[in-house]
Design a protein that fits this description.
The complex is a heterodimer. By secondary structure, chain A is an all-alpha fold. In chain A, 81% of the residues lie in helices and 0% in strands. Chain B has 2 domains: 9-85 and 164-178 and 185-273, P-loop containing nucleotide triphosphate hydrolases (Rossmann fold), CATH 3.40.50; 95-161, no CATH class. Chain B is built from 8 helices and 10 strands. Classes of the chains: A mainly alpha, B alpha/beta.
Chain lengths: 279, 274
């Protein structure tokens, strides 16, 4: 009797044996579970770092606690905040200028075939040349001040934004363009009221990728010529034999980059909800 | 009535003449030698199997596609491109602007044509009322049902007071109940505004319910027309009336004959290839 009901149960509810892993999966997919997973992953990483550092020379690999001490040291003498401020100011200025120039250029290149053919050779040429190749030239042309650093960030931002916006313009649905035309919109109207809003998700994607590029570029720019900034902080640490300061700089870059991306995402989500920005 | 005041008069509907119109894509004819006249204020349904070129013709009248040969005229003037006087209601509601609210979508036409803010706001409100969307005016299209989105498209076109409205299977993606409601609504709205309407469908009942005249298209690749005599049934129409049922039967035979011709043609092609 019981064996019969067992088999009937199994036959009727094949999902039952999976109920237990289902509950575990549900926990790890839940809000708390997700945080714990991320936290655990970071904790494990720090633990491995700690274990390795116990067997190695601190000049080769400083321990987490030594790095923390280095960070406090840099904070106390003001270097840390000054470096963050200088680097972020350069990144935000160059990145914003890159967006202000790159978005309209991309829209015009996407919409007008003539403009695209005119500028395409330059975009296709320069997008393969990394900003670090221009560091020396930037200093020669723009001097060792802020302008050369901002110009390099602008350079690294503009191509990726332009290329994304061009892709966005080219993928605007024909249906929407026809609808606009039959409702009375001319070329310029269509550009402003259909093309531009349709490319917003592409602009956001371009802006986020460019933010990542800006962090890559700022280090090279500041290593070559800068008194302050995270890049120069990393470079100067070498002269003092302070490997832990190098670690402070590296961790700082990662955290700041993550933070900036989150801010861009949050702003996009809050302000651009209507434009179906993928997050 | 308020509607009669702001809506165009009956004789404002456009007259369409297609004379020996052909459209080819890459040298391959899609429609060939089409002659069609639609009178001012008339509601004509183009009925035919899929792929017979109904949408192609509509695109020519809308000004989206040039005719490869022949002449396409509206009120005697050649069609040179899209024009707000020829409104288009698309089958897909993707044609709405998803970042604009319902009201902003309806105001779009007057806005890009430079109508002053106060005037266009009033016009938009009038047509929102007409299609029954006033309560949803400040929502985004993505928050609406399929039927409501098609109402937005209709209001967005009518606010321009077009002399001609082209509709490409506008209710094709709706469920049967919603479609029926929308058909009745369209009939009412058309009576209130009276533009000329060219309506594409493959739904015979829909054609019988709405049209003054049904035009069936023969199967492609070189489609031609069989014009059916005007539908003489009084409005509002009951699809269960003997006259409607009789009409349905004859239209269905017509179309079934065309479909089987197409299938036979394909069979012959396959035999020849084998």
């Amino acid at each position: 009797m019981s064996s019969v009901s067992d088999t009937t149960l199994r036959g009727a509810q094949p999902a039952q044996p999976q109920a237990k892993p289902g509950a575990v999966a549900a926990f790890f997919n839940g809000r708390l579970g997700r945080w714990l997973t991320a936290l655990g992953s970071v904790g494990a990483g720090v633990a491995v770092w700690q274990l390795l550092s116990m067997r190695l020379n601190p000049l080769f690999l400083p321990s987490p606690s030594l790095t923390l001490a280095g960070a406090i040291e840099l904070w106390d003498d003001g270097t840390l905040l000054q470096s963050i401020g200088a680097s972020l100011a350069r990144i935000l200025t160059g990145w914003s200028l890159g967006l202000i120039i790159g978005v309209p250029v991309g829209i015009l290149m996407g919409y007008f075939g003539f403009v695209r053919r005119l500028l395409d050779p330059y975009v296709e040429f320069f997008r393969f040349i990394p900003p670090i190749a221009f560091v020396t030239l930037a200093v020669i042309w723009l001097g060792p001040g802020e302008a050369s650093k901002v110009a390099l960030i602008l350079y690294t931002t503009i191509f990726i934004v332009t290329l994304n916006v061009i892709a966005g313009v080219l993928s605007v649905s024909e249906l929407r363009l026809r609808a606009a035309a039959s409702l009375g919109a001319g070329r310029v109207s269509t550009l402003l009221t259909v093309i531009f809003p349709s490319t917003v998700p592409y602009i956001v994607t371009g802006a986020r990728l460019a933010m990542g590029n800006s962090f890559l570029t700022i280090v090279s720019a500041e290593i070559v010529a800068a008194q302050v900034g995270i890049g120069s902080m990393i470079w100067t640490s070498r002269n003092y034999g302070k490997t832990e300061w190098v670690f402070v700089g590296i961790i700082l870059l990662g955290l700041l980059g993550f933070l900036c991306d989150r801010v861009v995402r949050w702003v996009a989500q809050r302000l651009l909800r209507r434009y179906a920005v993928p997050i | 009535m308020a509607i009669a005041q702001s809506a165009p008069a009956t004789d404002a509907g456009a007259e369409i003449r297609l004379e020996n119109v052909s459209v080819s894509f890459g040298g391959r004819p899609v429609v060939a030698g089409i002659d069609l006249t639609v009178d001012s204020g008339e509601f004509v349904c183009l009925l035919g199997p899929s792929g017979c070129g109904k949408s192609t013709l509509l695109n020519v009248i809308a000004g989206f596609l040039p005719a490869s040969a022949g002449r396409a005229l509206v009120n005697g003037q050649p069609i040179l491109g899209p024009d707000p006087d020829r409104g288009v209601v698309f089958q897909s509601t993707e044609a709405l602007f998803p970042w604009l609210t319902v009201r902003e979508n309806v105001e779009y036409g007057p806005r890009v044509r430079g109508v002053p803010r106060a005037v266009r706001a009033e016009a938009a409100q009038h047509y929102l009322d007409l299609v029954g969307l006033s309560a949803a005016a400040d929502r985004l299209p993505g928050e609406l049902s399929g039927g409501m989105r098609q109402r937005v498209q209709i209001a967005r076109v009518l606010v321009n007071q077009p002399a001609l409205v082209l509709m490409d299977e506008p209710f094709g993606a709706l469920d049967a109940q919603t479609r029926e409601v929308m058909q009745r609504e369209l009939d009412r709205i058309w009576r209130a505004t009276r533009p000329t309407i060219v309506f594409i469908t493959h739904d015979i009942w829909e054609a019988i319910l709405l049209a003054d005249r049904v035009v069936t298209m023969t199967a492609g690749p070189t489609a031609t027309f069989k014009t059916v005599a005007p539908i003489g049934i009084e409005h509002p129409r009951e699809l269960t009336s003997p006259a409607a049922v009789e009409l349905f039967r004859s239209l269905r035979e017509d179309i079934a004959a065309e479909v089987s011709k197409t299938l036979q043609a394909q069979g012959l092609v396959r035999e020849a290839a084998a």
